[in-house]
Amino acid sequence: MSRIFTAAKQLFIKKPLLTNCIVYGGLYSGAEFTQQLLTKKVIADTPEKCDLGLIGRYAVLGSTIFPVGLYHWYNWLDRALVGTAARTLAFKVVLDQVVTMPPMIYVFYIGMSLMEGQKDIYRELKDKFWPTFWTSAAFWMPVQYINFFVMPTSMRIIFIAATSFLWVNILCVLKRQENQPQIVEIN
């Protein structure tokens, strides 16, 4: 067992981006698999088969676009904003939420719609962007504070991947909700 751990540790050191892609993709698709087990097997009145295609779509986004973008973003952010002073951490957390979350939400909903063959690839994004954004802020801002304050740079993507497992479970719930157009009242 220690050989496996040592080999994994060496892979993280020698090939951090590749390792992050594998781990992040596994946890990302694992979250959807967990959701399907719960909704289709455990709490369903009539058990259904898991949708392997949907799990695969999560695997595509989770092992390619997201970990690569996050890897480069966190490397840049750590060089641009050095230190753990309260003001620096607060700025990093807010900057991370404002800069990374909107494109990630866009890529998630549009990417999933493209892979699902939806006619209007923007419909779900339009309906769910703001609820997803505010939910992500409530989840990610405290997580990112811990990430920037405690985690060494080399482990940030893995920490994010582990917490992303929780986040993607939330995202799966948001995605499964019926599209609710956002109504804005102007008085």
Any overview of this molecule?
The mean pLDDT is 89. Helix content is 79%, strand content 0%. The radius of gyration is 18 Å and the shape is globular. It has helices at 2-14, 16-42, 52-63, 65-80, 86-116, 123-150, 156-176. With 187 residues, it is mainly α.
The termini sit apart by 65 Å
In total, the number of strands is 0
Range of strand content: under 5%
Radius of gyration: 18 Å
Q: Average pLDDT, to the nearest integer?
A: 89
H/E series = HHHHHHH
Class derived from helix and strand content:
mainly alpha
Shape type: globular
Number of alpha- plus pi-helical segments: 7
User: How many structurally independent domains?
Assistant: 1
Low-confidence stretches: none
Main β-sheet, in a few words? none
Helix content: over 70%
Short structural summary:
The chain is mostly helical and 187 residues long. It has helices spanning 2-14, 16-42, 52-63, 65-80, 86-116, 123-150, 156-176. The model has no long low-confidence stretch (mean pLDDT 89).
Secondary-structure map with pairings?
Layout: H1 2-14, H2 16-42, H3 52-63, H4 65-80, H5 86-116, H6 123-150, H7 156-176
Helix pairs in contact: 1-2, 2-3, 2-4, 2-7, 3-4, 3-5, 4-5, 5-6, 6-7
Highlighted features:
7 helices; 187 residues; mainly alpha
